[in-house]
Amino acid sequence: MERKNITSYQKDGFASLHPAVQFLYFMTVISFAMFFRHLIFLLLSFLGASLYLWYLKRKAAAAFLGHLAFPVIVLFTVFNPLFSHEGSTILLYFPNGNPLTEESIWFGLHSGIMLGCVLIWCSCIYEIFTSDKLMGLFGSYAPSFTLLISMVFRFIPKCYGQFKRIREVWNAAPQGKRQGKRQGKRQGKRQGKGQGKRKGQITRNFQIVSIVTTWALETSVETAESMRARGYGIGRRRQFQKVFWEQRDTFFCILFLIGAGIELWAIAEKKIFMTYYPVLRMNEMSPGAGIFYGIETVLCLIPFLMGIWEELRWHYWKSGI
Amino acid sequence: MKNYYLYGCFLLLLAYGIFLKKFERKNMSSGELVVIAVMSALAVLGRSMFFMLPSVKPMSAIVILTGIGFGIEAGFLTGTVVAFVSNFFFGQGPWTPWQMFTYGILGIIGGFLGEKLSIERKNQKKEPWRQQEKQRRREKWIVVLVGSLSVMLIYGGIMDAASVLMTYSKWNAGMFLAAASAGLPVNLIHGGSTAFFLFFLEEPFRKKMERIKKKYGYFQREKI
Amino acid sequence: MALLEIRDLTFFYPEEESPVLDQVSFLVERGEFLLILGGSGSGKTTLLRHMKPVLTPHGKRSGTVFYRGKNITELTPREQAQELGYVFQNPDHQIVTDRVWHELAFGMENLRMDQAQMQLRSAEMASSLGISEWFSKDVTELSGGQKQILNLASVMVMQPEVLLLDEPVSQLDPIAASEFLEMVRKLNQDFFVTVIMVSHHINEIFAMADRVLWLDQGKVAALGSPREISAEFRKKNQLPLLPPIVQIYEQSGSMGNCPLTIREGKRWFLEELSKKESAQEAADSYRKETEKNPSGENNRKETEKKPSGENNQKETGNKPSGENNRKEMAENPPEKNNREKTVENPSRKNSRKAGIRNLFRKNTARTCEIMAADHIYFRYQREAEDVLSDFSFRLYDGECYCLLGGNGSGKSTALSILAGQKKPYRGKRKCHKEHMAYLPQDPQILFLKDSIYEELKDAKETRLGELCQNQEGDSVKEEYEVWEKEIYAMTGVEKLFDRHPYDLSGGEQQCAALAKLLLAQPSLLLLDEPTKGMDGMGKKRLGEMLWHGKQRGITILIATHDLEFAADYADRCGLLFQGKIVAENVPSEFFAGNRFYTTTANRIAGECFPEIITVKDAVEVLQEAWQG
After folding, report:
1. Average pLDDT, chain B
2. Contact yes or no for B91 and A123 at CB 8 A
3. Cα of A59 to nearest chain C Cα, Å
């Protein structure tokens, strides 16, 4: 039961931004990927996400891409044309008479890449967006709910530790020689030995779970008392914020919002577009479109570039000393 | 361009917003909050203990039992929290809001079931001991049945539908059917394992929760 | 005006006839350090909770508590939370959130303080109590002592006027406990925080407190400075509640200024001896007497010494702790009888085998070995350091062995390996007895049912089933029933029958767990820190229970850091250090040479009489000296 601590990625330039900025960034990038329906944009986003994941996890990132993202892409590329028969370019007919269309393959590919891209972004979030950040972010709007989450995080390792302790004590007792193994033993006699043993094992495991539950519920009373003793329930809480809004957050936010705004405008004004059905259509490759692609590239590569920049700077500092 | 996934997400967010607002205003007592946290922690632990067996999750069983024991609201809250928190260990993704929602629904179903059973119990209070025992057994089977069915149909159904909506902005009934049939084994395992866990955990959990409720007077106002 | 005034407080728990608190009245001045003492069930915690209205239990009540002249129940919730800080017993259960910084801020969040103020206060607290290093850690990474310090800090950030501590160190190891108490003392002395503490861990606190309040069955039995109060305890025969040094002083019946610390105690002891100008003589005569009964080649000196001790005891007429035990033991030396019985008893299969083995191993004397560990190595993770390395150990039939050791020396690990819960990665563990029972540190985890009665019934039936399987007939059953009665009488568990295990106090839980284990008729009992969180009376009771068990042929192995307890009840002690046993002997020899790692009595008197290790020994030698 390992959970990432806040210190893990503090050195990363992007991960040390204010959580709200990170949240805004990820939400925007993901919704662009999901709703823009433009293959080139999608591929750029995919590239940015993959590079950042590689920056964060190195070898593990490659494994993630190979084992999860690419199978998803392939699966959905195949899946869509099997069920969707829209589109005008018919390649061939299935045995049941339904057509296989070129558009549906393209759309399937798009959907697959989209899902893969979202998955990669999500695992980047998973890497750097610790529960602390989330709690800090929502703490001011929903302090009680954040408290609840924080308590759950407190209780998970606590209960797990207790579970391990109990299991040790209970499992060490030789079979049938002490309390609680009665059922297992009796059944062991009536039925075949092995079967009874396994059944006894199951009952014992449920007994352990039962003990942990009692323990957790009963001792939670003391936790509740300790909360009351420290003034819980007086009124609305105010979450203590450990991170503060810095100047560079503002700076980052402004630049990012400008970039995202331009992209949105471009999509809304159909400067950039792509349709799959009934025919595959896309905007022409003009210098104007190139600018938009460029902006999208920059947007998606921001976390990666910031990370690399930070790393380079440290490198040169070190050599400067 | 109709994007149902977007609408769905939007609706969910709205629902959570309203729920959170209500929750914040209510100022739950410390004891109830802790108890919910404990149940959620146990559920998350349950999920992580069986992580090598996909879809064998005692989590759903515990959420349903919490609903039965502590009422609708507690059930929903536990379900939501459990889905949210467990994904910190297993990976957040676009499925998180949907999982939060469906687990919440499971909690609500548990809550309704619990209320129904307690009303029934009240009506037939003066029965001999043997009869009570029989009643208990009947209740257990009802819980197991309703629980596993709702896991299979409601949880499985919503999650399968959501996975289609998530990926394709254009779909048809065939896709849903395909997704459902692809998800069928998973849902069957999930439902079956939930039945198994409910069968074994129903009694101990009920006893413990009853005791806590009675001893400290938690979750009393929800009683009708 | 006193800060707190308790006036005629009487309190009944619902549905109970006798009051928990009976006409309790006292004043607490600002900046005072008040220690509340009392046996279990004397209402200490109930009293403490009356000083914090949100924690006050439900029940019938008369009398009032005033805080700064105002009825304490009229304080606003905010004032209450701010002015009265409360720290609970268990370091784990009172932590609410997952991170240290969040826990520290929790109280302030409830008070809705400004961000800047929260920042400042938590910084202030973290730096002054030394938390800064683990400020952003996960709570689970902390040790028990650190957790309790965190709890203290997270109460202190609200800057309370009064600090109420409910047995704050009873779950901690000695070193963490001292550290915590030192912190409390600092808060009291340097920051003028009024401290009211309930505690069993009195060795250090007793000297620290300004005044001591003794609650006996809900009544104030005595209230005064530590020096004044000890005589009252002697009158009521409750001396074990006090630190050993005070016990020695009171039991020996001397007059003058009661010593509170070891330093004072030693000074006093030496003075007393030199006053009579017979220190050396007394020492000589004492030694002679012990040598009159020459102990065998084996290390059984401890018990053989007893008869000589008994003569002196009769003259004093003052019955100190554990004396009954000793007397009985002296009258029929338990080890010998026991050992012979076990060897002769044919029903014990292993002992015969062991007997044959013993023919070849003369220096293990008459005892047969029932557990052996050879060169055991153990570590928790592959890359971690060894907890046990080259750990070798022998346990003989019918003895009570205390495994001693400091913090993190691996006592508990060793015990759980010996119990077969953990597997060593190298080395061998052999156990010649099948029936082993293990009492963990928190006995709660042995309970499964909804009442103690069901719990015990379960254990009973299991054992009966086993017995009947081997032998048919009612005689087995009858024999077993006698055993059952004995256990009930011994542990006093009968009055707890219809209670839920979690409604019991810590001591009662332990009794019930012990009863449950003993019902299975184990021949070997392993206990992990059994005296944790117990007061002197509780330890005495536990010691007696164990002694009774030993009388019935149960071998006992205890892992503990309670030296006084080991000195009182062990047959042999072993010191575990760096994963192996570095010293092993009978208690009198074991502690004799030590200057630091030894009991209070030995620290005071050990210079002249190295054999003296228990309170009783010290008292005896003093009285002998006085008689000339």
Report:
1. 85
2. yes
3. 23
Q: Which of 3.40.50.720, 1.10.760.10, 2.60.40.10, 3.40.50.300 would CATH assign to domain C4-224?
A: 3.40.50.300
Percent above pLDDT 90 for chain B: 33
Per the CB < 8 A criterion, the answer to whether C279 and C591 are in contact is no
Residue C278: predicted pLDDT: 55
Comparing CA positions, the residue from C374, C398, C378, C373 lying closest to residue C388 is C378
Helix (H) or strand (E) holding C566: helix C563-569
Q: Determine contact: B181 vs chain A, CB below 8 A.
A: no
pLDDT above 70 for C628: no
Predicted confidence at residue B93, as pLDDT, reads 77
> Which chain A positions have a beta carbon within 8 Å of C79's beta carbon?
none
Lowest-pLDDT range of A183-197, C280-294, C414-428, C458-472: A183-197
Closest Cα in chain A, distance from residue B121 (Å): 24
3-state DSSP assignment of residue C43: coil
pLDDT at A138 over 90: no
Distance between CA A61 and CA B184 in Å, rounded? 31
Distance to chain C for A97, nearest Cα, Å: 60
The answer to whether B134 contacts chain C (CB < 8 Å) is no
The pLDDT of residue B68 is 93
Express each pLDDT in B71-118 by its tens digit. Answer: 998 999 999 999 999 888 887 777 888 899 999 999 999 999 998 888
The reply to whether CATH 3.40.50.2020 applies to domain C394-599 is no
Q: Does B223 touch chain C (CB under 8 A)?
A: no
Chain A residue numbers touching C110 (CB-CB < 8 A): 230-234, 237
- Please, are residues A35 and B3 in contact by the beta-carbon 8 Å criterion? yes
CA distance B56 to B67: 20
Fold that domain B4-216 belongs to in CATH = Arp2/3 complex 21 kDa subunit ARPC3 (1.10.1760)
Q: Which residue in chain B has the smallest CA separation from A154?
A: B41
Binary contact (C112, A238; C-beta < 8 A) = yes
- Extract the tokens encoding C267: 């000074």
Torsion of CA C370, C375, C376, C377, to 10 degrees: 170
List chain B domain ranges: 4-216
Whether residue A242 and residue C101 make contact (CB cut-off 8 A), yes or no, is yes
Banded model confidence at residue C396, pLDDT cuts 50, 70, 90: confident
Q: What is the pLDDT of residue B220?
A: 73
Whether the upstream peptide bond of residue A278 has omega within 30° of 0, thus cis, is yes
Spell out the domain ranges in chain A: 19-138+243-320, 151-229
pLDDT in tens, A142-197: 888 999 999 999 999 999 999 988 888 887 764 444 434 444 344 434 444 455 66
Search chain B and give the residue with CA nearest A79: B175
Q: Do A158 and C140 touch (CB under 8 A)?
A: yes
Asked if A169 is an interface residue toward chain C (Cβ–Cβ < 8 A), one would say yes
Rounded to a whole number, what is the distance in Å from the CA of A316 to chain B's nearest CA? 36
Chain C residues with beta carbon closer than 8 angstroms to that of B211: 450, 500
For C346, the token pair is: 């044919």
Question: Is C137 in contact with A5 (Cβ distance < 8 A)?
Answer: yes
Q: CB under 8 Å to B152, separation ≥6 — which residues?
A: B187, B188, B190, B191
Judged against a pLDDT cut of 50, whether residue C364 lies above it is answered with no
With a CB-CB cutoff of 8 Å, which residues 2-31 of chain A face chain C? 3, 5-7
Better pLDDT: C517 or A82: C517
User: Is the CB of B29 less than 8 angstroms away from the CB of A144?
Assistant: no
Q: What residues of chain B lie within 8 A of the CB of A114, using their CB?
A: 167
- The answer to whether residues A71 and A62 touch, using CB atoms and an 8 Å cutoff, is no
Q: Closest by alpha carbon to A211, among A248, A159, A257, A261?
A: A159
